[in-house]
Amino acid sequence: MFKNLFIEFFSWIKAIILALVLAVCLSVFVIQPFTVDGSSMEPTLQGLDHFNPQQAGDRVFAFKTMYLLGQEPEIGDIVIIDSRVEDERTLADSFIESPMIAAFIDVEERSRHNWVKRIVGEPGDRIAINGGSVYRNGVKLDEEYIKESIYLDFEEIEIPEGHVFVMGDNRNGSTDSRDIGPVPIDHVTGKVVARFYPFHRAETF
């Protein structure tokens, strides 16, 4: 009897461990949930307000496989970036960022560098801001999703190969490529494909 109980118990332990391993791999390599923090993507996404407990922040799913397999981000994609553009990313970073692993470490510290932004420029594009609008290769962008016109101009730069230019939709309340420079494509870690919470605002992108 005790032998059978031990075998059954051991089987359950193996099943739980396997499930945990699969969950970690899923969040590292396939799809991962994120909580939007701050107001930089308003009005598209509402972020966590640390001074207002009633504003919890939108929850989104980011699809990771496409970028891990070499597909490059495109204009208009809402993406998760690693803002540490001067640092080399490793596979260990992806594992540390998994919610399953982050539960056992300093989550806030580990996730602070993960930003949600929108791609506005690809390699070789020239990006500038004049008169409250973004210009790509001399053409004014029609951006219905932004919160308001941009207060400050930005001198034109050319995006180097292997990089993208990202901005928040709340252009006057966003820290983005205007501050940290173009983002290496391998620092674009996932494409936001859906908002799943709050439920009444659930949608795909």
From TrEMBL:
Its EC number is 3.4.21.89. SUPFAM superfamilies: LexA/Signal peptidase. CDD domains: S26_SPase_I (cd06530). Its main location: membrane. It is found in: Cell membrane; Membrane. It catalyses: Cleavage of hydrophobic, N-terminal signal or leader sequences from secreted and periplasmic proteins. One of its GO terms (molecular function) is signal peptidase activity. Residues 11-197 form the Peptidase S26 domain. Gene3D superfamilies: Umud Fragment, subunit A. This is Signal peptidase I.
